[in-house]
Amino acid sequence: MSTENVILIGFMGAGKTSVGQAYARKTGLPFVDTDQMIEEEASMTISDIFRLKGEDYFRETETGVLKKLLSEEDLKVISVGGGLPLREENRALLKKLGKVIFLQVTADTVVKRLKGDTTRPLLQGNHVRERAEELLAFRNPIYRQAASVTIAVDEKTVDEIVNLIQTEEE
Ligand code: S3P
Question: Which distant-in-sequence residues (6+ apart) come within 8 Å of 2 by Cβ?
């Protein structure tokens, strides 16, 4: 049984939301997703926030959401946007917030899973694979640094990943 929040970080398409929802179902904890919290608060999609207000504004909002979550006492499963751990300030807030689990994915899987996706402004256009590879090379060391546990997810089912997270909790 978890005694702290469980936070899932990792690249777009790593399965943070699916795994988070499944883990929440299994443990009976509530599930929240920072992207969803931001969209609800702004009454706008992430794509529109990027387009109309810019990425810097979005990143500010992510920090605000983390602070809000830190002020709440009930335990949760939290999935955060793929770029949220990039800010050093956010990594410190994540550590305070609970157990941080990094779902590590390869560019191959990202491309397969996000084919045709129009909701991720950072992965649009004709060079999605190159962009994913470039971003992953930059971000993976940061994700590793932000997390206490890393799970390579490419070949694993959602259930297998949930079981691994539960083993970490024991
Ligand atoms: C982003 C990831 C997205 C969303 C936004 C930016 C990123 O979330 O926050 O499009 O910088 O990696 P998911 O990781 O849930 O797709």
Answer: 27, 29, 75, 99, 169
